[in-house]
Amino acid sequence: MLCLGVEEFLVGECGHDPCGATWIVGFSGGPDSVVLLAVLTVLAPRLGAHLEAAHVDHGLRPESAAEAADAEAFCAAWNIPFHERRADVAGLARERGIGLEDAGRLARYAFFEELRGARPNAWTALGHQRDDLAEDQIMRLIRGTGWPGLGGMAALDPSRRILRPLLMTPRSDIEAFADALSLPVVRDPSNNDPAYRRNRVRNDILPRIAAENPRHGEAVARLWRQARIDEDFLEASLPDFPDPTALPMETLAGLHPALRLRLYRRALRACGPGQALAETLFSLDAAVAKRATGRVFQFPGGKTARIGRRALVFRLKSGGSGTRENRRSH
Amino acid sequence: MLCLGVEEFLVGECGHDPCGATWIVGFSGGPDSVVLLAVLTVLAPRLGAHLEAAHVDHGLRPESAAEAADAEAFCAAWNIPFHERRADVAGLARERGIGLEDAGRLARYAFFEELRGARPNAWTALGHQRDDLAEDQIMRLIRGTGWPGLGGMAALDPSRRILRPLLMTPRSDIEAFADALSLPVVRDPSNNDPAYRRNRVRNDILPRIAAENPRHGEAVARLWRQARIDEDFLEASLPDFPDPTALPMETLAGLHPALRLRLYRRALRACGPGQALAETLFSLDAAVAKRATGRVFQFPGGKTARIGRRALVFRLKSGGSGTRENRRSH
Description:
InterPro entries (chains A, B): Rossmann-like_a/b/a_fold, TilS/TtcA_N, tRNA_Ile_lys_synt, tRNA_Ile_lys_synt_N
Protein name (chains A, B): tRNA(Ile)-lysidine synthase
Strand content of chain A: 5-15%
Subcellular location (chains A, B): Cytoplasm
Distance between the termini of chain A: 28 Å
Radius of gyration of chain A: 22 Å
Keywords (chains A, B): ATP-binding, Cytoplasm, Ligase, Nucleotide-binding, tRNA processing
CATH superfamily of the largest domain in chain A: HUPs
CATH class of the largest domain in chain A: Alpha Beta
Oligomer: homodimer
Number of strands of chain A: 10
GO molecular function (chains A, B): ATP binding; tRNA(Ile)-lysidine synthase activity
Number of domains of chain A: 2
């Protein structure tokens, strides 16, 4: 049942073509990734895909080496190629001046990306499920993410070749599946540490929202689906230019502000990383509407927008240092 | 300062034409409505508008009659025409089988609407401010409202002729303004009663979100503005038909699902009250895409959609009883 639902979601709804693909599964040993690995083990031969598992030992807890050995044994028993990386997450966090959670994510994604890049037609498959999506929507609401980003993380991200096959599956179904198959799962105690915003959202905010609407999980899936449809529509509504960072003033004048604002975001993304402030985008748009030729707007990450007579031109100043983009941090 | 900001918002941003308008201010005596009345008292002569105050005595607390007398005295001192209605809110709640909060809202809106309808070019002005909007966004997230409804209540609702001039003003600015002018304000103790979802959102959920992002109020305003722009864009993107409840299959086939889904909602609204389930709309859209002629879908409030060869037709079944529409409940 779970397997067929995941196949219908991944292949039917998201349009993933599994035939001949290699799925690199991010395998922490927690319930989500164990169930993802089990489900994809069933689906891979059926759909003509190839499966491998990737485990990162964060070295943050004394038992992590033993957990890595268990993960390896699990994959050996299931005949799944296993890759392990020992990362000095604490050292990376110090070196970069970031939190342990961010450093762990960096280390994992770097390893997955390395494996994925070395194989033709490979995808990274991650175990995020519907309760993670609910958290992600709240995290984005807190950060002030607009639409359609507010709908939450992608289930199929072609630019980073990431799949999230369990994104419409409630955590309770995953736990029930793991129980029914007696799958061995590791519980990471840091998931309850209130030092992390994600855990505060999970443990303090989400239960209060779920108490108001016991069917909030369905609302989460609905919002996500609407965002996906709207994102596709909005993308299709945006005109294409030879240079996405040089927007002809003539064309802008004929567009609805809803599209102009999104063209600015696209142009800024094309210049490099750095989160744009919506307030600055509103001001820029007001200036564009007034054709305030010569005005220059500054954006984070050393980017600028200059209103010219013919075009609005976005540039990265030389020496402009990119800041990490929040939307990509999941 | 506050007055100029409100004028810029109401007239500049929302496009309200105040000249010759009558503003019926919903005046509870709480800080929001007192400050709204004070601000509009300053703006009315400046903008050529006329001001009246409307107070509903809910009869739920022993002190409510005294508060009504204070409200009347305040308006007399400021030379503002004052209208009062004593409502049996508890009786209305029993009679309709609804909560006290909903019954109070019904009684207030009925009174405001009565006054508004009796005057040419009149608008009801309500004291909702930015913190109410933040609550409204969370309430809508809990209910599972989609985009652009998720952005929150309107500042200018032409269909019901409602204005919310303080919608971009933080509660803290309103309190500071009331303090600075020593305005007499009433505190309704039921605002802290956890029996109401709104109060649980206000007192338990929102402070946790604000703790994660102290600038969440700005994010609220941003999301609201984006929703307003997108709503305008989406409305402008929808084709008009002679009968909004009969959608030509030929036209539907050429539209993006993002627009088709919104056309269904518009058709359902045109049939009468009743909240549509997004799941049913997704199923309907899948059937329309497959041209499943003859299929019929049921919607709350006794409404149906039938896929014909030429058109998708929405109808209210005779005897179909309308349920109150959630989106209108604020």
